[in-house]
## 1
Amino acid sequence: MKKIIAFFLILWSLGIFAQDSLMVEQEISINKIIDGTLLLPKTNSSEHLAIIIAGSGPTDRDGNQNFMKSNSLKKLAQALTRNGIATFRYDKRTVKQIKQNKIDKNTMFDDFITDAIAVLDYFKNQGAFKDITIIGHSQGSLIGMVAAQQGADKFVSLAGAGQTIDEIITFQVGKSAPGLVESTKKTFDVLKTGETTTDFNPMLASIFNVELQPFIISWMAYNPQDELKKLHIPVLLINGTKDLQVTVDEANLLKEAYPDATLKIIENMNHIMFVIEGDEMENIKSYNESSREISLEVVNSITNFIK
């Protein structure tokens, strides 16, 4: 019995070795705020680099947060690199702040754009790649499309919104608590002036926390449709039909704003690129199921687009 177990352990280790041998991993510090992982195909040098930008919250380079581990962005990076595309993914600055217990409450949405541009400039200045694609996931889509205006060669929106954040939040409130819609709109009207407020319905306190309001103000200043129109490069828009956070309608809005974009709607794919065959409960549970594989269709779509 021990020999059988040992045999399978050897096979398992060989499989892991074979998998790792397909790429070279390098840890890179872009600056004192941004740390990330560069994956390079080992068998041949890549002409293409994809920079992957994570979504909202303190999301790390792998697509994870505390108590929510899917490794979705890590899986995407590895899959693209196996397909001959170098990838760089990085921790959002808030991840490093939390690790160092030095949370900067003055971090604004614009800071995330500054970080993305710093990453783009770093690799452009190196001149090691023929073309650079920015892939923005969720909130990272808006960050990415603004950063891409500074010289990216291609742009991919993964589960990106087509409306401003105030419109999205108002819509979500309307679905869960229709009676609070007018109060939500009135509060956003104040925030649009650039001023914070404490005059809002107490039931909306989780949304309009006074400490978060300056960040929301900076975020809602960017309209995805307007920012996308500023790009003059190939664009790929990807959404899944089982995305609980960003509906297919959002992708259609982006397509309307940028008619030359390629639109790819993937059946049964959820927000973090997993294929969900079951109900909403399975969908929610998948956010913490790192054993799942991401959609092969999303990998192939991005690979074909970049190459």
## 2
Amino acid sequence: MPTIRFVREGKDVKCSIGANLRDVALQEGIELYGLKGTLGNCGGCGQCITCFVSIEGSNSPEPLSGLTEVERAKLRRRPKHWRLSCQTLVKSSVIVVTRPQVSFQNSRKFIAAACEAELPE
């Protein structure tokens, strides 16, 4: 079973292979949305782009499904390591930063520590 390490929340979550990243996060009570996204998210259709996450590291070269056409269009001006969680399926363990557009104190330190710590498969 893959593990999703949510850096901001300090939480590791097991999921099945092929699980939708957004669904797993919401089931675990992980907040994907800021105020705008809370008020106007599309419910996982890939249209509002408020559920984006930053993929920071993994044990596998391709821990997630490939970019969808929706992501290619909606994220074309965003960093390459950002994904729409609603369009992303988990293939193997991965490190995720939710709401990457909002910095948090010592974020680089926490991300580095999360990447260095062993990530269970």
## 3
Amino acid sequence: MKIKDLIFGKKIAPDSGGAKHYAESVQNWLPVSDIRDGVIITKDGRFVKLLEVLPVNFYLKSAMEQQNIIYYFSSYLKIAPDRLQFLAVTQKADIDAYISRMWRIYDAEENESCRGMIADNIAEVEYLADREALTRRFFIALQYEPRMKLRGNTIEGIIQRLNEEADTARNYLDLCGLETLQPEYSDIFLGETLYELLNRKTAHVAKLPLQVFSMVGEV
């Protein structure tokens, strides 16, 4: 079984009436049917490319830099796909790594006064994370449109064209001084991102294990 089959489901036995998914299963309501070569394929037949953009503070830029950002971004919008979405996702800050490090320092500290201060710091960070600390992720979603010219009228051709559109977006965003993430394994990146977007509360306390893809492969 592949990880994508586990997440998105696959056809079950023919004697089940031809249903694609079990009733009331996660796969039954999940709008995604597959992820291929960094492109999301939805159940209603759409092809979507998702880019994550690292933010910058526009107001900390010089007047010249601000003008360049506006110019190049407006230039990109003139050639961008008609169906273009900008997504901002707000989540609670992930402090697990920091807290674990502070507890290791706490255990190694011999001075009781220092240990008390470290414990107070941990408690304060946890308090702020629960009530105030937030992280934001920014995405650009590109969707395949019939007007896009393809080298071949196939799914592979659509995926190739969307990846070319993503490269064009990256080039213009680079001129704006914005960096877009280019993960080594795009399908894994999308799987993890969808997990976090669809399970925003659960993902904060239960991360998708990095080894889950190899584990399912072995199964």
